[in-house]
Amino acid sequence: MAATSPELRPGGPPPPPSAPTAPQPPAGAVPGPRTPPGQETYGGWYERVLGWTVLGAAPGRLATGTRFDVLELPSDAGAALLRRPVPTGPVALAGRRMQFLVAAGGAEELDGLLDWLEWGGVALDLAALGAGCRITAPAPPGTSLGKSPRGAAVWLRPPEQGCEALLPALPGPGRAAGPARGPDLVRLVAAAATECHRARLRRRTVPASQPLAFS
Questions:
Q1: What is the pTM of this model?
Q2: What is the pLDDT of residue 57?
Q3: Cα dist. 187→53, 82, 168, 177, 200 in Å?
Q4: Phi-psi group of 56: left, alpha or beta (phi > 0 → left; psi -120 to 50 → alpha; rest → beta)
Q5: Which run of H or of E encompasses 73?
Q6: Which of 156, 144, 160 is nearest to 94 (CA)?
Q7: If DSSP codes are grouped into helix, strand and coil, which group holds residue 200?
Q8: Cα(51)–Cα(214) distance, integer angstroms
Q9: How far is 174 from 159, CA to CA, in rounded Å?
Q10: pLDDT value at position 204?
Q11: Contact assessment for residue 53 and residue 33, using Cβ atoms and an 8 Å cutoff
């Protein structure tokens, strides 16, 4: 008579626990480390689409003076400037300041242009950010404001791949202003100075809380 299997022996001691035989998920099905919130939203878009480097954690900072410079002015003056038929490059809104991207090196020209345009010495609150400066990286186009850091800067006119070649710049030898070269920095500075001056006069009679209108 054949011996009875220990597993089937009635009344015998319970068999020792066996190793689990359920199939394990393949290694590829185990999710890897997740990208920290905001990293791909900000840094990934800038690096992948524009080839720009974002410094620091999201939203990070963009260095000026290499790929572009920035003209910065009060947001009410900037809103009026956007309504003018003056060509611009990308434009961002950061709190109560508006930032107009211009060609690298343009920041160094601001004081001389204001003097030449007879705005020298006038309090305009118009600034230029060039080499050694930083701006907060605005939320990429299409980013939900609900998923952006509180008070994040946003693009009003977003940059596109290769936009650096068409940023507002001074005409130079063999580099005429116009659609073939890009917007004229002189025209942009002249219009910006005018709107900064007008905005300063309006603030004396219009409450600062009045909403802005962008085109």
A1: 0.74
A2: 82
A3: 30, 13, 9, 10, 20
A4: left
A5: strand 69-74
A6: 156
A7: helix
A8: 28
A9: 25
A10: 85
A11: no
- Respond yes or no on whether the N-terminal peptide bond of residue 36 is cis (omega within 30° of 0): no
Structure tokens at 107: 């920041």
Average pLDDT, the chain: 80
CB of 125 closer than 8 Å to CB of 198: no
Query: How far is it, in rounded angstroms, from Cα 38 to Cα 60?
Result: 10
Residues found in the chain: 215
Q: What is the dihedral of CA 135, 140, 146, 148, to 10 degrees?
A: -40
pLDDT digits (tens, 9 = 90+) for 191-210: 999 999 999 999 888 665 55
95 Cβ neighbours under 8 A, 6+ residues apart: 75, 151, 153
Higher pLDDT, 106 or 29: 106
At residue 143 the predicted structure's pLDDT band, cuts being 50, 70 and 90, is confident
Write the single-letter amino acid at 49. Answer: V
> What would the two tokens of residue 90 be?
């990308």
Alpha-carbon span 98 to 71, nearest angstrom: 8
Q: How many Cα neighbours within 13 Å face the side chain of 46?
A: 21
Give pLDDT tens digits for 9-64: 455 555 555 545 544 545 544 443 344 444 455 678 899 999 999 998 878 899 99
